[in-house]
Amino acid sequence: MVDDPGSCFTGIIYNSFLSLGRKVKVVMSYTFKGYLRKDGSAGTRNHIGIISSVICSSTVTNDIASKVDGAVSIIHSNGCAQLGDDFNVTKSMLSGVAENPNFYSNLLIGLGCETNQVSGLLATIDKSKPIEGFSIQQMAGGTNTAAKGVAIAGEWSKEITEEKRMELPISKLTVGIITIDIDEQKLKAITPVVSALIDTLLKNDSTVVSSLTRTLEPGGDYLAEKAEDMRAKVELRTLSKGLNRRRWESDKDYALRSFSAEERSLAAEEARLLGSHRLEGLLDINEKPGGKGLYLLKSSENIVESLSNFASVGCNVALIVSADGVLVTSNVIPCISIAPQDDSQSPRDYVDIYIGNDDKEQQIAALLEKLIQVSSGELTALEAYELGEFAIPHIGTTF
Amino acid sequence: MEVSYNALRLHPKDNVAVALQYIGKGETVLISNFGEDLIATEEISYGHKISIQAIKENEEITKYGECMGKATEEIPLAAHVHVHNVRGLNENERADIIHHMMKT
Amino acid sequence: MTKFYGYRRPDGSIGIRNHVIVINTVGNLSALTRKVAGLVPGVIPVIHHGGESQFPEDYVQTLRTLVGTAGHSNVSAALVIGMEDDRIAQEIEAALIEKGKPVRTICLNCNLTIQEMVKEGKSWLSAALENSKKETREQCDITELIVGLECGGSDAWSGITANPSIGAFSDMIVHEGGTSVLAETTEAIGAEHILASNAINHEVGREFLTIVRNYDRRIKETGEDIRSANPTPGNMAGGLTTLEEKSLGCIKKGGSTPLREVISYSEMPSEKGFVFMDTPGYDVESVCGLAAGGAQIVLFSTGKGSPTGSPIVPVIKIGTNPKVYEIMSEHIDINAGKIIDENKSIKDIGKEIFDKVIDVSNGEKTAAENQLNQEFAIWRLAESI
């Protein structure tokens, strides 16, 4: 039913009618309740971002966030003594996260003498939302900085209580998807349901961003066939040749390592998980999608770095596909944890949806419903446990 | 009565001292760890260096008892010592020092 | 000989703090670790996002740092949160058992819910914290102290006031048979020949020159040149003329005693005396390596004022000028700016640092400890996989 291009339902109507066993056709697109931003993007959450520019200001950043309702602390271990591309990744990660639609506003907290200056971030971050920034040295100490930060963010905190969610089409969703810590057999149990969901999302003009991690890279030549863009085709084929990352010991025998048959086979299954739509492009770390459709985003396999990468490219919700669930989520975007049903184990309280042998259509509908509900404000299991984190990937050494 | 210094020599071998406050041209320079007082021939900013000996062109500038560079021109006594009359060591000079050091 | 009061551990090492910590092995467990720590006031979280998706050079360094941190003499007991069949958890546990230190590992197991893991962690930590309160300090010799030497947020005064004063302290502690560990390889570029010529023998001198050369090479690979970028325009305005001068000011923290040993990041010195650890100039990562390598205290000179600390070692901040001490007093312990405006000598401040080190070793809290600054970051080498 969901695959039928003519049938479109709101998640809620669909589910309630399904339970009555009727087949209905309602000419309405799927919607969720989100926060519409001035730039046209939509938030599934309405956080206030307190963002540290460097690790040295992380304690003050945490302090401010802990004293303001609705504030989220974005701390990390980078921001100074970085050069070249590695420094650029830190900058683009932080400006990207600040621009995430799940933030109502942002406060940047720096130290003052760091490489990653607050003034530089302020100059690059889009100004359609409230944003302020200052540093500990400028404010003559952490106490003053925290006091000023709490005063500013406290005002925003009052403002967000006035904000209301509104009915928005799911074309406003940018959904991240990462497959992690799962073998081919278990993944096969999930593919039919998740790939159908992705097809539905794409059919409804949503944007889907899949992490391109080392487990998917061996599938690069297969994915290249689905790519329109020539640059993406060439790069995907290169990536499929073997694992290659930047490292200083490049003169040792650490260079390109070719992928095994098992790795290629798992990657092919991961690629099938992304459904039948064409690929619009291949994104670098922190690069935002240029339009609607399906994109691949270069990512490390480090779960916190990957989810933070989703947040920095504008995803407002994400799906994590794994064998046993993960114990960490993003503190910017809600992440729905999906795992294959395993009757030999008791269900884990940190998995949102188990995919089993039940009716496929029903499971697809349930997953879509979950996505819509979570996007409309329902907490994911990991959010309820407050297990959100943030981290910036390194692509080189610090100095 | 305690003497109030306005400059500091960091090591007995040093041929420069550091100004602990702004020193105007013609002002007396009282240097901690150095026997004699000088009259500044130029203004010396807070934290900048003043020569406490006449330094020949290409002679080493010594601070902390170590070579921190070479004079690019003759520097008279009690003058401002900075980028206009000092250069850092080049690769060859440093390589020579290291080579010499490893031999002895 | 100077004495202080510390905690003697079963392996003979001496702690100056008695922390109960909870540490994660991989990024996936960072949030859970934070949550567990938050449930028992007084427990210190040691949280990072590495330990996975890393090449061997990073993995080995991360592992060494985590083992060194959890096994540190300032740590009374450690709870490890790991995955199933987790090598990092196994190695930390084995190292702590060998040291006779209380350790417990909770592994992510499919039969445990989050609530059960949190409950188990909380009850073990509460018991460990109670137990730690029964441990008492005893008199120890200064020869048992390892002090890390660091700078961050430097200015043109760093090399004139605070760093030479730290050097004077280093000479004092080494003279009494203790150990000082200078760090930050980046900061030595330009003055490496001086430190190398101060080495106890050619071999140590050569080792030092090698780590500096490697660092220089890495910087060049990014397309940057440290010599063209240093001194910075700000440094020059402050009075610094050459790279040699700037670097000399940094290595002055090491004083004038001979360099006995060059060690890797997070490695324990095997000799007493003056030692150099290969760390980046990134102060938080450097302090993390010094602590993991066994330093019980870190001295940290700062010209601009930096609040950072460490989860496991007290960090003593030394301000380089009167202004920074005045405006950032809540983050600074010692005012080396008195050399500028109060006619204090480098020796005077060196002695003040020495006395402070003994007081802090006896339990006096530093500014960073009072402000709960517990930053932790492990030096990264390559791209995440």
Q: Can you walk through the features of this model?
A:
- The complex is a heterotrimer of chains A (about 400), B (about 100) and C (about 375).
- Chain A has helices at about 10-20, 60-65, 85-100, 120-125, 140-160, 185-205, 220-225, 230-240, 260-270, 305-310, 360-375, 380-385, and strands at about 30-35, 40-45, 45-50, 70-75, 105-110, 130-135, 165-170, 175-180, 205-210, 280-285, 295-300, 315-320, 330, 335-340, 355, 390.
- With about 400 residues, chain A is an alpha/beta fold.
- In chain A, the strands form four sheets. Chain A has a seven-stranded parallel sheet with strand order 10-11-9-8-12-14-15, with helices on both faces.
- Chain A folds into two domains: about 45-160, 3-Layer(aba) Sandwich (Rossmann fold), CATH 3.40.50; about 175-245 and about 250-390, no CATH class.
- Mean pLDDT of chain A is about 90; it is low at about 1-25.
- The N and C termini of chain A lie far apart (about 55 Å).
- With about 100 residues, chain B is of the alpha+beta class.
- Chain B has one domain (about 5-105): Roll (Archaeosine Trna-guanine Transglycosylase, Chain: A, domain 4).
- Chain B is elongated, with a radius of gyration of 15 Å.
- The relative contact order of chain B is 0.19.
- In chain C, helix 5 (about 160-175) links the parallel strand 8 (about 145-150) and strand 9 (about 180).
- The interface of B and C includes residues 32 and 83 of B.
Most extensive chain contact?
A-C, 61 and 63 residues
Rg of Cα set of chain C: 21 Å
Class by helix and strand content of chain B?
alpha+beta
Summed up, the domain count of chain C is 2
Summed up, the helix count of chain C is 15
SS elements, strand count of chain B: 10
Main β-sheet description of chain C: 7 strands, parallel
Name a few traits of the molecule.
heterotrimer; A: 399 residues; alpha/beta; Rossmann fold; 7-stranded parallel sheet; 4-stranded parallel sheet; 12 helices; 35% helix; 19% strand; globular; disordered N terminus; C: 385 residues; 2 domains; 15 helices; 14 strands
Describe the SSE topology.
The complex is a heterotrimer of chains A (399), B (104) and C (385).
Chain A: H1 11-19, E1 31-36, E2 42-43, E3 47-52, H2 58-66, E4 71-74, H3 84-98, E5 103-110, H4 118-124, E6 131-135, H5 142-162, E7 166-169, E8 174-179, H6 184-203, E9 207-212, H7 220-226, H8 230-239, H9 261-272, E10 279-283, E11 293-298, H10 303-312, E12 317-321, E13 329-330, E14 335-340, E15 353-355, H11 360-375, H12 381-384, E16 388-389
Parallel strand pairs in A: 3-4, 3-5, 5-6, 8-9, 8-12, 9-11, 10-11, 12-14, 13-16, 14-15
Antiparallel strand pairs in A: 1-2, 1-7
Helix pairs in contact in A: 1-11, 2-5, 3-10, 6-9, 6-11, 7-8
Chain B: E1 7-8, E2 16-19, E3 28-29, E4 31-32, E5 38-39, E6 49-51, E7 60-63, E8 66-71, E9 80-81, E10 86-87, H1 91-103
Parallel strand pairs in B: 1-4
Antiparallel strand pairs in B: 1-2, 2-6, 3-5, 6-9, 7-8, 8-10
Chain C: E1 3-8, E2 14-15, E3 19-24, H1 30-39, E4 44-46, H2 56-70, E5 75-82, H3 87-99, E6 103-107, H4 114-134, E7 138-141, E8 146-151, H5 162-175, E9 179-182, H6 192-197, H7 202-221, H8 226-229, H9 233-238, H10 243-251, E10 259-263, E11 273-277, H11 283-292, E12 297-302, E13 315-319, H12 322-327, E14 334-335, H13 338-341, H14 346-361, H15 367-370
Parallel strand pairs in C: 3-4, 3-5, 5-6, 8-9, 8-12, 9-11, 10-11, 12-13, 13-14
Antiparallel strand pairs in C: 1-2, 1-7
Helix pairs in contact in C: 1-4, 2-3, 2-11, 5-14
